[in-house]
């Protein structure tokens, strides 16, 4: 049996994490066993208590961090725990749809691709805000120019890859900038990234999604750094 490790970093997502886990569990993947790894970054809204309750019943590997270290750090912790042949990163909100796993896995299983990204913007802006879309396009364009690639969504949640791809890669980013680091290091190690379009249902800023423009500036700096100095 092939094993898929689903890594879910979570911070204060009490209202959605239970449904996300249910949806991940409900996905039918013939011949593939799912391993769900949830890393809680020291939530303060009751998420921890909820996870402590459902994890044993649902056979989930639960990691409770003792302090908030950031999404990138949570994903890196998930990598260490993952025993699967293939790894997928899943957000704890309901912006993306686990029902798209079969489409995301198909290029890896059938066409022997090493890395697949689920792109929110392959078919245009979709439901994303103009600010989010333009910022992401700028960062992605910079990555494409420096790494000679043709991506449409560097910051997507759905990054899927064979575990071997990240073997031997050392990561240092702890926050949202981890998206840039892992993409740059995957490309630099000689792996191509294959994109397929995914659906995307963004939360409004008032629902808790706030990324500052400085995140974009730091992203541009990191792309430059990882291309030439790492």
Structural notes for this entry:
With 230 residues, the chain is of the alpha/beta class. It contains seven helices and seven strands. β1 (2-10), α1 (17-26) and β2 (32-40) form a beta-alpha-beta unit. α5 (130-147) runs parallel beside α7 (213-228) and α6 (178-188) packs parallel to α7 (213-228). The longest helix is centred in the middle third of the chain and has 18 residues, at 130-147.
Distance between the termini: 37 Å
Mean pLDDT: 92
Structural class: alpha/beta
| Order of strands across the main sheet | 3-2-1-4-6-5-7
Strand content: 15-25%
Largest sheet: 7 strands, mixed
Low-confidence stretches: none
Number of helices: 7
Which percent range fits the helix content?
A: 25-40%
- State the total count of DSSP E strands: 7
What would you report as the Rg, rounded to the nearest angstrom?
A: 17 Å
């Amino acid at each position: 049996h092939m094993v898929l490790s689903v890594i879910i970093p979570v911070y204060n997502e009490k209202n959605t994490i239970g449904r996300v886990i249910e949806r991940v569990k409900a996905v039918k993947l013939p011949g593939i066993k799912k391993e769900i790894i949830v890393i809680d970054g020291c939530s303060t809204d009751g998420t921890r208590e909820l996870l402590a309750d459902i994890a044993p019943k649902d056979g989930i590997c639960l990691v409770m961090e003792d302090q908030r270290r950031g999404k990138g750090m949570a994903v890196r912790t998930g990598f260490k725990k993952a025993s699967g042949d293939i790894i997928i990163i899943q957000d704890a909100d309901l912006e993306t749809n686990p029902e798209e796993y079969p489409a995301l896995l198909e290029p890896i299983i059938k066409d022997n691709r090493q890395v697949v990204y689920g792109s929110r913007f392959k078919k245009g802006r979709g439901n994303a805000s103009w600010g989010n879309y333009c910022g992401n396009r700028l960062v992605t364009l910079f990555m494409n120019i420096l790494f000679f690639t043709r991506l449409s969504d560097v910051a997507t949640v759905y990054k899927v890859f064979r575990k071997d791809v990240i073997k031997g890669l050392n990561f240092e980013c702890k926050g949202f900038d981890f998206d840039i680091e892992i993409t740059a290091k995957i490309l630099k190690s000689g792996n191509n990234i294959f994109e397929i379009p995914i659906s995307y249902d963004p939360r409004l800023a008032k629902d808790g999604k706030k990324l500052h423009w400085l995140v974009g500036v730091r992203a541009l700096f990191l792309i430059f750094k990882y291309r030439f100095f790492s």
